[in-house]
Amino acid sequence: MRQTGDSKARAANSPAAGDPTAAHAILSDGDEDDVAGEAEAAIDGDQAYDDGDGIPISGRIKWFDATRGFGFLVSDDVEGDVLIHFSVLRDHGRRSLPEGAIIECIAEQQDRGFQARRIISIDLSEALPIPPRPAIPAADRADRQALTDAAGTFELVEVKWFNRVKGYGFVNRPAEPDADIFVHMETVRVAGLADLHPDDRIEARIAEGRKGLTAVELRLA
Length: 221
What we know:
Layout: H1 5-12, H2 29-44, E1 55-65, E2 70-74, E3 82-85, E4 102-110, E5 113-123, H3 138-150, E6 155-163, E7 168-173, E8 176-184, H4 185-190, E9 201-209, E10 212-220
Parallel strand pairs: 3-5
Antiparallel strand pairs: 1-2, 1-4, 2-3, 4-5, 6-7, 6-9, 7-8, 9-10
């Protein structure tokens, strides 16, 4: 497997580094459901594991949404991300994969990009730990709803930085680059965005929270 420092960096960043239009880069909820459905249908229709036109690919899991049942692998072997549906994990007794896991698989080119058809091996030695997801107190849920109700209309913002592991980051209005606007990982997930990267342009509804400006809703610009 060819894993370099560059590939590790790619695993921590967006598909095609900052190009939100690249294959599998950022998908809307509807697109994600379509991709997942197509993947499951294709895999279930080929349970004999005929590798056919498939090629061996090695890389790292960039992210995997256990609720939706799929995620993406980044690799030096091919351009773009490789879709991994939970269906191909059945033989390994899994339904999800942690970020950073090293995967060897057989993948083939589909209309939307490469898709894993068979998982050969899973190496969790360098995977990121999965942090526990604490329950949101009722008071915090009320505060979030109040912020949403008080937020303005969608407006253009630029990503200053965002860290998936830490679970938060900041965006700025283009005309006010020094006024940081907090954005939580949960807001990114609810928007159906895979990740945020410096200088990405998106739209946000912004409210004044107890600790400053907060983005309460996001969408593609």
